[in-house]
Input
Amino acid sequence: MRYLPKSPAERKQMLAAIGARSIDSLFEVIPAEYRLDRELNVPRQQAESEIIDYFRAAAAKNSTGYASFLGAGAYSHYRPVIIDTLVQRGEFLTSYTPYQPEITQGTLQAIFEFQTMIAELTGMDVANASMYDGSTGAAEAVMMAVRVTGRHKAVVARTVHPEYCEVLATYAKHQGLPSTLVDYDHETGRVDLAALDAQITNETAAVLVQSPNFFGVIEDIPAIAAIAHAKGALLIVSIAEAVSLGVVRPPIEADIVSMEAQSFGVALSYGGPYCGVIAAKEKYLRQMPGRLVGQTVDSNGFRGFVLTLSTREQHIRREKATSNICTNQALVALMATIFLTVYGKEGIRELAEHNLAKAAYAAEALAAQPGAKLLFTGAPRFHEFVLSTAEPPSQWSPRLLDEKIIGGLELRRWYPELGEATLWCATELITRAQIDTAAKVLAAGLVEA
Amino acid sequence: MTTHATNPAIPNGQRTLGKVRPHQTQNESLVFEKSSPGKRAYKLPPLDVPAVDPAVLLGASHRKTAGLLPELSEIEIIRHFTRLSTWNYAIDLGMYPLGSCTMKYNPRVNEFVSRIEGLAEAHPYRPDALSQGVLEVIDLLQRCLIDITGMDTITLQPAAGAHGEFTGILLVRAWHESQGNPRRKILIPDSAHGTNPATAAICGYSVENLKSNAEGGIDLDALTRQVDGETAALMLTNPSTIGVFESQIHKIADILHAKGALLYMDGANMNALVGKARPGDFGVDVMHLNLHKTFSTPHGGGGPGSGPVACKAFLEPFLPTPVLVQNENGTKHWNYDRPQSVGRVRAFYGNTGMFIRALAYILANGPDGLRQTTEDAVLNANYIRSKLEDLYELPYKTASMHEVVFSDKRQAAKGVRTGDIAKRLIDYGFHPYTVSFPLIVHGALMIEPTESESLEELDLFIAAMRSIAKEVDETPELVKTAPHSTRVSRLDEVQAARKPILRWRPTD
Output
């Protein structure tokens, strides 16, 4: 086996040194009736070339070469080449959690830079070293708010990513943490502020909203914060599209921000691995879940970095920990850090503005088709929009696929009241020609009818 | 010569410590400190649609002031992160014997195939009809893992080991609820990973500690006394955190099952069993796997992981949504209609990129390679044990599987603790073992070589450990002040925690 660095003679030599008769004698501690007496039923050992052939065939079967208007929490952005060049350095790729700071300063300094960038972008004081993803991060943020406030209820906007809501429901169910959903204003697509105000009580630990929300609409964070804070609840803002922060005002009135940083240079990869992260006001630091890297000095006075405040964590506090999280998304956070370094202060703005322009053009072009209508026009959007069409998606979607274009996402699964409406996303990777083609295809069906 | 003579890491004017010699590393500031306005590392293509005025489109939601992100050129970014990388130790550099963490070789073909365009660029909401390739990959991995564990069914959704524990205990809870009583408590041995009690608490259970017996295993009498009608499950790591197989495992399962409680297995140490024994055959009802341990996906400095949960058929109705199902024509799709499901534990379907890598590893090994891998891991641990047990205290004499746990009892008598020995190993060119865990061993040295170490590397490690034992006798201060050869010496962790500095800020 090519990954195993031993010759048969060396194995014999080692067994002799141990004083073992055979390799099987080392497994005799396992009762005989439980020892496997057959080969595992997995494919036979394959050459590297065969493995590559297998996955290439799978990738081809996956139908490549489509332009896509899909967003909804997973975004297609250009990934600079040097991200993969750098994260594939073995010293990053094959290192463990930096528990021994003397020989992991590289990972530690990079995480410190990540924490700084996330804090800067979100307008929060501090950020952690990453969470699994945006969905679990949002759930952990709500549990954090429960610890901070000592209250046990949550109010969640229906415009938070529906799968994030489902994850939160799973986490909340067994913690005596009932959460209620607040509807959206059917004109603007924003949280219904009056309904929100009515639902918050002095038992509400947190209000969870997303901005830009699932419909791509930017929420009125200052207004929502005022309503939440008036009743002593914390405001948690979930951000599923991190690139928006290049041009959208950060939610500085929030107490906690839970962000999915996939847009920062992380491949779509059919849903993961992505990169959650929690940022917050400094006064809530001790209730934050996950790892934190802090700056300190060594015995010679040189600057260095360490994992810190670990008394919050499971390996010290066990059942009293702030979370059970251990492994996080360090290498993916490194991708995001490199991405943000490549684009930098000006680039992230310029990139966000390109997304804004593409989506504005796409929304106008698609909505101009006969029978098509843009929903939620009363509030600003980033790069997603909801479109109702004359035909149901089942009619136009196959025609778009024929043009190698994947159209907007059907919303009915989560929002039955929206009928046949679809959610479209246009990032910088969509071309004007693709938008124009999509618009023509939408119009075509109606002409035939 | 003078540099060597004055280097305290290498006493008596020696030029080398066997595996290593000191070399230079570059200094490198924080990326923010290197920034200057106007530098660029990006270029966007010309905008092919009309430009928009964000201030007009966004109104009050427009961002007026940019965040303090750095401004650098591409070569500076390459150098920055390359220099940082040289400050890290890694498996690619040498043995990384962190017990319980399973730092094995991360094959590069795994990285290659995970980046093939049709897989890396697949959007999770693509129509199932356009995703058949990745669904087949997921299906094959599921079938392999089911056979490896001896279980009936599996979910790949959990993002890491602790997330898998959470999912597994939710399955336990949902099943008990379906029987009319969720029950109140989870039993956890005192040797367990910290994630186990933290998980039980998040699932709404109280944690009851189970004391280990004299061999470091489960005390059957104590278990019998503690299991009652309110016990939902025992969370058992097998082999245990001292690297010992619970030879009474079937009795443990019987005691639990007789009272209606379930057996959860923390599969962190599954690399000691693959191809040799299957948890599904010895009474385990539900378990998680760590693809980043047993199945070679990279740790990446702390993640990403992937924590599939395998279970017996009676728990299948409760698996997280969605589950992958096969249509009559052989195509596959996600089924969301799961009325008894515990719900969703993560958006989308899990860390697909890790599934691809783990499957590539299984294909590279085949059944014979997987078995040999397990055998070599156990052989390596036992070899280290046999070569060090005369110098380091072995608190539990039970046969070792994939890792061996010593204690610092003899060295502590000289005032040198496990943490000091660990730091001194760094000077010898090794990453330390796991320090002070498991908690049932006072001053633990938890050593897991994995199968990836050659005899040559093992002998260098053994020589280093033997040399350190000698230094403890002769020059204990040298060990207590280690490491001596690193870029930074021991860092002030107390200061870091007392006045946390968690981000860079510009100086005025």
Remarks:
- Chain A touches chain B through 200 residues (CB under 8 Å).
- The mean pLDDT of chain A is 96.
- Residues 358 and 431 of chain A are 8 Å apart (CA to CA).
